[in-house]
Amino acid sequence: MAAAAAGSLRRAGWRLWRGRAGLRCQLYAPQQGFRASAALRRASEEQRKEPPSPSSQQQFDPQQADPRPEQEAWSPGPSYTGQDGQESQDYESEEQLQHRILTAALEFVPEHGWTAEAIAEGAKTLGLSAAAAGMFHSDGSELILHFVSQCNSKLSDLLEEEQKLVQLGEAEKKPTNQFLRDAVEARLRMVIPYIEKWPQAVSILLLPHNIPSSLNLLTSMIDDIWHYAGDQSTDFNWYTRRAVLTGIYNTTELVMMQDTSPDFEDTWRFLENRVADAMNMSSAAQQITNLTGLNQRR
Amino acid sequence: MAAGLCPGRALLSRRGGALWALLGTARGRAAGPETHFGFQNVSEAERREKIYQVFENVAEKYDVMNDSMSLGIHRVWKDILVHKMNPSPGTLLVDVAGGTGDIAFRFLNYVRSVRERQLQQKLRHHQNLSWQEISKSYQEEKSNPLGDSQVVVCDINKEMLKAGKKRAQHLGYSEVVAVHAEKKHECFTIADANRSGLSWVLGNAEELPFDDDKFDVYTIAFGIRNVTRIDLALQEAYRVLKPGGRFLCLEFSHVSNPLLSRLYDLYSFQVIPVLGEVIAGDWKSYQYLVESIRRFPPQEELKAMIEDAGFLKVDYQNLNSGIVAIHSGFKL
């Protein structure tokens, strides 16, 4: 009974201390010795700043000198396992470890497909047991979502670079249709290494429980492209432009999946034609509204 | 507690329990701190002793009783546990308090079928194989049907292990190896295990006779309730798991739905001890069983204890709205 009371006190105390990420285990000098987290490594080189999590940790935040990831239970706990206690170390969070596992798993995808086996192989390369793949859903959907969001961020970076060059005057500003073509082509080229298993990925992304996340990623990517293309519309055009580009993107992706021409030439030609169609359609719509007098802007 | 619904026997045992407590405290102060045995209060050493006796008595009829008490649903629970584990060939599993080997057998079946599917996929992908290559792959399938997966069944009770070994022979998981390793560091190495992938070890969950960082998965199905110091068992689990390893615990837990809770209490206290008397001739052991379920910490508390031992991404899944819960944690 006393042991249970002591245990619960310790737990309560530990939760309080969890917020104080800097001061660790100087208070708990366990007899069994410290045990650093087996796989969460120090992330002092991590650039990323995770958003601060629940309120209990907010009060301790100002005391932290350096930004560090503050996810729940990001370093193992109280009396039995602690850290070195030497100096305050940055440990990565579970989220970051999961990202690392998924990134490592990507190279096994051509062989195993988008499955839990690929994730297990990825975990093994990081020195973890294959059982760590149990952290993810067994149909491999997290792997695909991770890959898609990675591609989207790469695309964003690419477009940002191009924009910087244009602003510095080192490159010409591309006309809209050229810009869109290049952006979609760049994004689709990222899928080429996995093209064999890509149909499987698309079908998994269309499962009901994945649709919210996959739709989210798709729309934010399309939005990004239009933003860098210089779209500043504030009327209904905003919606039509994104809808049209989403249609172009999806159909081109489908064409690419069954394209056998060298370096996917047929796909890029298809893309060119669709973008040209879209441009024509918009100018045709404008002409019609001009003719019928519906166009307010003269 | 279930005061309104467990008249008769339960009250009797609780009154007897008060007497026991008196005797216990008088006798047992030297034998360790106070803990509980069902609804009684006893010392730790006494509790270990009593639980050992309980399982010694029930070992023979353990499986029959499981089927009759849970109406066979315990098989589904164990199936769900192994599916959640989703083991791949090459996994090393330690099943603690695994007694009669339910989880171990399911694990072996699962791994065998996954391995078969893997080999079939490999064959299908390679077109134009010569006959030699095809026969080589069939031989590979025969010589290594489990893909090097191993399961070690560890239990503190000799009778339960004996019952398990008998069952394994009967069901055809042959070539068993018995190892006694009662002290820590008197280690049992994987080299001792064998082609059948199955080994039986006598050991205490609070002090496992294995090296550190050894197993991929640690399971304890309906056993952690009987461990006297749960925190020690969780620490041992953390110790023997590899980095990335998974802890899975299947146990009776707290039912939150009030209607279901009443029905469940009624069934537990009125029907189960009677079944125990009729089928196994042992009322008291099954009385202990249902009482120990009530005394066990609920889902959130167990989750906190698992997190305390150092596991991350701890989560639980209720089966049958809380009658049974599967807790899972990772050593990261």
Automatic annotation (TrEMBL), chain A:
Gene from which this protein is expressed: COQ9
Homology family: Belongs to the COQ9 family.
Subcellular location: Mitochondrion
Domain COQ9 C-terminal: 211-281
Domain Ubiquinone biosynthesis protein COQ9 HTH: 94-124
Name the UniProt record assigns to this protein: Ubiquinone biosynthesis protein
Pfam family, one: COQ9_N
Keyword annotations: Lipid-binding, Mitochondrion, Transit peptide, Ubiquinone biosynthesis
Oligomer status and interactors: Homodimer. Heterodimer; two heterodimers of COQ7:COQ9 come together on the same side of the lipid pseudo-bilayer and form a curved tetramer with a hydrophobic surface suitable for membrane interaction. These two tetramers assemble into a soluble octamer with a pseudo-bilayer of lipids captured within. Interacts with COQ7; this interaction allows ubiquinone (CoQ) isoprene intermediates presentation to COQ7 and facilitates the COQ7-mediated hydroxylase step.
Provenance organism: Gallus gallus (Chicken)
Record's function text: Membrane-associated protein that warps the membrane surface to access and bind aromatic isoprenes with high specificity, including ubiquinone (CoQ) isoprene intermediates and presents them directly to Coq7, therefore facilitating the Coq7-mediated hydroxylase step. Participates in the biosynthesis of coenzyme Q, also named ubiquinone, an essential lipid-soluble electron transporter for aerobic cellular respiration.
GO CC term (a single one): mitochondrion
InterPro entries associated with the record: COQ9_C, COQ9_HTH, Ubiq_biosynth_COQ9
Location of the region described as Disordered in the Swiss-Prot/TrEMBL record: 36-96
Low complexity composition-biased segments: 55-66
GO biological process: ubiquinone biosynthetic process
Entry's Gene Ontology molecular function annotations: lipid binding
PANTHER family: UBIQUINONE BIOSYNTHESIS PROTEIN COQ9, MITOCHONDRIAL (PTHR21427:SF19)
Pathway field: Cofactor biosynthesis; ubiquinone biosynthesis
Biased composition (Basic and acidic residues): 42-51
Automatic annotation (TrEMBL), chain B:
GO cellular component terms listed in the entry, alphabetical order: extrinsic component of mitochondrial inner membrane
Pathway per the UniProt entry: Cofactor biosynthesis; ubiquinone biosynthesis
Catalytic activity, as annotated: a 2-methoxy-6-(all-trans-polyprenyl)benzene-1,4-diol + S-adenosyl-L-methionine = a 5-methoxy-2-methyl-3-(all-trans-polyprenyl)benzene-1,4-diol + S-adenosyl-L-homocysteine + H(+)
Keyword field contains Magnesium: no
Positions that bind S-adenosyl-L-methionine: 100, 155, 204-205
Topological category with respect to the lipid bilayer: Peripheral membrane protein
GO molecular function terms noted in the UniProt entry: 2-methoxy-6-polyprenyl-1,4-benzoquinol methyltransferase activity
Subcellular location: Mitochondrion inner membrane
Principal EC category: transferase
EC number: 2.1.1.201
Pfam families in alphabetical order: Ubie_methyltran
Gene Ontology biological-process annotations: methylation
UniProt keyword annotations, A-Z: Membrane, Methyltransferase, Mitochondrion, Mitochondrion inner membrane, S-adenosyl-L-methionine, Transferase, Ubiquinone biosynthesis
Record-linked CDD domains: AdoMet_MTases
InterPro entries: SAM-dependent_MTases_sf, UbiE/COQ5_MeTrFase, UbiE/COQ5_MeTrFase_CS
Functional description taken from the UniProt entry: Methyltransferase required for the conversion of 2-polyprenyl-6-methoxy-1,4-benzoquinol (DDMQH2) to 2-polyprenyl-3-methyl-6-methoxy-1,4-benzoquinol (DMQH2).
UniProt cross-references to NCBIfam families, sorted A to Z: MenG_MenH_UbiE
Family from the record: Belongs to the class I-like SAM-binding methyltransferase superfamily. MenG/UbiE family.
Cross-referenced HAMAP family: MenG_UbiE_methyltr (MF_01813)
Oligomeric and partner information: Component of a multi-subunit COQ enzyme complex, composed of at least COQ3, COQ4, COQ5, COQ6, COQ7 and COQ9. Interacts with PYURF; the interaction is direct, stabilizes COQ5 protein and associates PYURF with COQ enzyme complex.
Name of the protein in its database record: 2-methoxy-6-polyprenyl-1,4-benzoquinol methylase, mitochondrial
Highest classification ranks of the organism: Eukaryota, Metazoa, Chordata, Craniata, Vertebrata
